[in-house]
């Protein structure tokens, strides 16, 4: 396996890398509009970047309320457990911040991935950005 590491990112300093990954995955691949992808929550979120060597290949964010989102890995690096490494970093940071519950809005097809990390489905399926989603919750401990 490749040498993957996940670091806490700075929204301002690492903005170009975060935007490059999210634009590739959400806007170009999945057809999410830029207006839906970029929101004011980014400024207050804790961001994470996954690196292979010096190349950023994945990202995620944790909001102050414990919501994890924008988990994305560039196509060529999928299947290498990078998403799991990003999620573990976000969960660890949430717990470090004293957030005993973490939530996320998952694309329905990814529910199994999040269930393996301890999340449970807490909503019916709904459409967001033209894609089926569900809300999920993980309680620490």
Automatic annotation (TrEMBL):
Record GO terms (molecular function): acyltransferase activity
Record-annotated N-acetyltransferase domain positions: 2-141
UniProt xrefs under PROSITE patterns: GNAT
Enzyme class: transferase
Enzyme Commission designation: 2.3.1.-
InterPro entries to which the protein is assigned, alphabetical: Acyl_CoA_acyltransferase, Bact_Acetyltransf, GNAT_dom
Coiled coil: none
Cited Pfam families: Acetyltransf_10
Assigned keywords, A-Z: Acyltransferase, Transferase
Domain of life: Bacteria
Protein name: GNAT family N-acetyltransferase
Organism expressing this protein natively: Thiopseudomonas acetoxidans
């Amino acid at each position: 396996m490749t040498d993957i590491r996940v670091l806490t990112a700075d929204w301002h300093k690492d903005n170009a890398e975060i935007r490059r990954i999210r634009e590739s995955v959400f806007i170009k691949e999945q057809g999410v509009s830029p207006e839906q992808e970029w929101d004011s929550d980014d400024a207050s979120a804790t961001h994470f970047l996954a690196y292979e060597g010096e190349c950023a290949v994945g990202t995620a964010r944790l909001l102050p309320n414990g919501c994890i989102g924008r988990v994305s890995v560039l196509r060529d690096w999928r299947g290498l457990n990078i998403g799991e490494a990003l999620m573990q970093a976000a969960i660890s940071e949430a717990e470090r911040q004293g957030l005993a519950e973490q939530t996320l809005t998952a694309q329905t097809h990814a529910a199994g991935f999040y269930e393996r990390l301890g999340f449970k489905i807490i909503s019916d399926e709904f459409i967001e950005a033209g894609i089926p989603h569900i809300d999920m919750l993980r309680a620490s401990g």
